[in-house]
Amino acid sequence: MATIPWLVDVLRAAGVQVVVEGDWLNRMRPGSFDPIGVLWHHTASTSSASNPHPALGICINGRSDLPGPLCQALVDYNGVFHVISAGRCNHAGVSGGSGPIPSGDGNTLMIGWEIDYNGVNQEMTAAQYNASVAATAAVLTRLGRDSSYARGHRETSTTGKIDPSFIDLNVMRADVAAKMAGGGTTWSATVDNATSGRFTASANWGVSSYSSQRYGADYRYAEPVAASDVAWYRFNVPAAGNYRVEAWWPANSGYNSAAPYIVATSSGNQTVRVDQRATGGQWRALGTFALPAGDANRVGVSRWSNSSGLVIADAVRLTRV
Ligand SMILES: [Zn+2]
After folding, report:
1. CA of 70 relative to ligand 1 center, distance in Å
2. For tag attachment on the chain, is the N or C end more exposed, with fewer CB atoms within 10 Å?
3. Cα 150 to chain center, whole Å?
4. What is the pLDDT of residues 245-292, one digit of tens each?
5. N-acetylmuramoyl-L-alanine amidase domain spans which residues (predicted)?
């Protein structure tokens, strides 16, 4: 196989949003290309809603030390696949071998997605994750390979690459496998403090739009007290199973260093405390929990903290794993 001219059609058939970047069918590195798997990367660029694909130009054109194209597709902040090349690209370097991918020329062996997030203080967005899983499942199906043929660069690299960071690669492969098995979608739902009918808090919780790290238009805040006054997030969990619970808060030095999040699991409430003075403006994992099916208050933020500083209730996300 010298090229993969089917890539755009396969992605679109899987429901992935595609933007074709110029002459992708003829833009490639010289040399062999006979892919058996998919390699996941992050770009190390900071993407945002207003700047969704900061690394696109570099991925097309390359750098002074590495000629482009640098990946077959770039996955932007919104989960859109920008298809750059149908052939060999400079993304993988030497493979040290990982899972079923042998050691050797990584650029021959693998198709690369550069997922555009910085990986240091920015995680992959939910849209990037879901699109990457769907695209990987579709391409591996086309290649006739199972989900173990999807790897992260940090698994195959011989030079200490760390990408893609903030991702459990075994969980991501399991989501690819579920997709390939026809299980369909990776269920995920986000409830923000402004989500109609899904967030409840007493009037003791104020409303603020002070921090630019907020999710959506605003968030709720309250002084810590030794009393139960929980802000609740209601989810309609589709089936009993294991779900990753993530929270988003704006960070500020005046916020609480041990804000208690309550997860109502299949075996009772569990509390996870987070430091809301740091790591704001992004999804942070509270853990993976067994949850029962049904529509109920599933995650809460309690004011009952012994630490000083405002307790923040902004957004919560559940994802089936
Ligand atoms: Zn990489």
Report:
1. 9
2. N
3. 16
4. 999 999 999 999 999 999 999 999 999 999 999 999 998 999 999 999
5. 23-165
